[in-house]
Amino acid sequence: MPRPILATIHTQALRHNLGLARASAPDAKVWAVVKADAYGHGIARAFAGLRGADGFALLDLNEAQKVRDLGWRGPILLLEGAFELRDLELCSRLDLWHTVHCEAQIDMLAAHKTNVPQRVFLKMNTGMNRLGFTPERYRSAWTRLNALPQVDEISLTTHFSDADGAKGIAAQMTAFLAATQDLPGERSVCNSAAALRHADAVALSDWIRPGIAVYGSSPDYPTHSAAHWGLQPTMTLAAKIIAVQAVSAGASVGYGSSFVADFDMHIGVVACGYADGYPRICPTGTPVMVDGVRTRTVGRVSMDMITVDLGPVPLAGAGSEVTLWGSARNGAVLSIDEVAVCAQTVGYELMCGLAPRVPVEVQA
Length: 364
Ligand SMILES: Cc1ncc(COP(=O)(O)O)c(C=O)c1O
Prior knowledge:
By secondary structure, this protein is an alpha/beta fold. The chain is 29% helix and 25% strand. The chain is built from 13 helices and 19 strands. The longest helix is centred in the N-terminal third of the chain and has 14 residues, at 11-24. The mean pLDDT is 98.
């Protein structure tokens, strides 16, 4: 029998969340962001749930190839553009649209031999200070691109650093609007947080670029939960109890004896550990569901096992279902965001960190 652990990708939830993203910006087209192998879900596994998007945004050429191999004939956008000149040959061959964020990428385009001009997204650095031309240098970059026979339509894009938080997007919006006001071309500015929280950014958008919301995690947790936004979990990580220990008051559990029982209790040993992608840093008290009932982890996460308090589920035993995040069979949901906070991280990292040894099933 295989080790009792399984990740499930929920096609219907992907479809539902994509629909919510679309509803947040009804006049815009939607890029489903599928970088990092669809945020750890697997592009091929997520594809059925996301094929209602208007395009796929990603950054790895291999992933672009995967999307074409799945039969997608529509737009694909490279969010970081070309890394070297020969990438542009693949852009021509696979008909990829690509971001241009620096002069070197314009040089590559100028050197690219093609009869079919390429669609580009010219990126402005409005304050994130990762990629893009400053507002001052944006127009000259646009003019240079516009003069190239290798370039077809130029779209205008930027990325917000604080769409999920108190700082907001006002300063970045102002910079973007001022530098682009008389330039032609479609605009793309919204990640998930901007699409859900900022009507001014939505109003400007011809294309939105939601990632995390599509995968059922709240872009602004803990301010708002996934349930608040109506988002459904798209990945469930579940395992089973493989042993039960009766632990007396005063006895400890696991490495380092970090948990000591205050009273007699039953502990379930679960077939999931940090080698499966469950963060070792999760402390005692991290929420978990047993048979769809919320309880907590106790003691340290080890490589292949965690230990959980069976107090709230006295009937549970070997073989009982344990939901680390996602949906239980009884329909109860444990949001990945709640677990991520206990791990001092975000849902993005947990999804992306699902370990290769975990078998994955797609639920239609
Ligand atoms: C350029 C760009 N657009 C859109 C996204 C999607 O962001 P989110 O997953 O927060 O919706 C990302 C993700 O980091 C990104 O880098």
